[in-house]
Amino acid sequence: RLQPRCFYDLVIEVAIVRPGPIQGDMVHPYLQRRENPQAVTYPSEALRTVLQRTLGVPIFQEQVMQIAIVAAGFTPGEADGLRRAMAAWKRRGGLTPYRARLLSGMADNGYPAEFAEQIYRQILGFGEYGFPESHAASFALLTYISCWLKCHEPAAFAAALINSQPMGFYAPAQITQELRRSGASVLPVDVTISHWHCTLERGSGGPALRLGLCLVRTLPEADAERIVAARTERPFGSIDELGARARLSPRALQALAAAGALAALSAHRHEAHWRALGVERLPGLIEGLSAPEAPAALPEPSESQNILADYRHLGLTCGRHPLALLRPRLARRGFRSGHELSLLPDGSSVRVGGLVTHMQQPATASGVVFASLEDETGIINVILWPQVFREQRRCALESSLLVVDGALQRRDRVAHVVARRLHDASAWLAGLGRDSRDFR
Fold it and tell me: I want to staple 179 with a disulfide (CB 3.0 to 4.6 A). Which of 90, 106, 158, 232 is the partner?
């Protein structure tokens, strides 16, 4: 909602979404003042110099100390004591001794009692965790650099995030989906090309992300290193040769086959899995190659079977999003995609569905739960009020594919669905493995 226009807006964003400013009721007042900064007034000219850069709302620790000095007559030493109390008030009994001093000091300097109480409440909020301005500026610089990379070098940014896992808020599946929405290509794991980490390749529209062997579940890094070393000598001609030259166990070969990483050495995933099951290093054969065997006549997996196998063994897919396969069925049942929400008026009754990527209940949110659902068009933000979450807790926490009936809340180009009713549609995902045509 802030829609940053300059670097200092990033500094504000970093500092304001913290327990202190949230509990001190600073977020919404700041957003409202940001919409009409000309209407902002200040209790005195002295406080204008302290609060003007944050539109009259104290957001940084330094401002709290300056308010104590300017408005309540604190000495610099007393203000520093207030700062230390804000950092540890729960352990030391902290801010209570400062209340009378702050209120009386502000009254002596002509400030209304209501304003003095408001400032004290905001200071109490800072005891829960507030940022110094310099700290926020350092974070904002990292934010700016990250945003620049994500905008101008999206494949490199995505590769760096995935190679740094486990970390952060987003899993590789969300990172790669976001990368594809930006127009960049994501190339599958391939034993003939991939390294352990994700790498970049030259693509027609710019750098493409090549997924690394690190994403193959249960594959040890030592196995990947032997694969890369063996193919550096010469390319692999078959799965049997791969197993022999890289000294891979049957379990490692089966993990690669299940993840689709043997596509270049087989007709399709089913054949690769069959080959991996049958590989044996027979003693005495030249270079450890197994005896030749005619390929089995196995059916090629469907698109939906490949996608589900990708998620099961890689945690992501280079194919279409599962919701894209289900979209014909969803459309018939009145579901709206994440993109369509941006076209509907505020207050509309909507039904949405998506893969559950996050479920949060921040301590500062008074029991409200925030969920993120992902469909083929993007992320759908869902708000679960405490009563809704209590009554439907099991459905919320156990669903892989969650359906939400609710009301659309749109403001400043930010859309949320306020949930009324939840439904677990995870069985639809399992059904995709049979035949995606069943869901059209």
Answer: 158
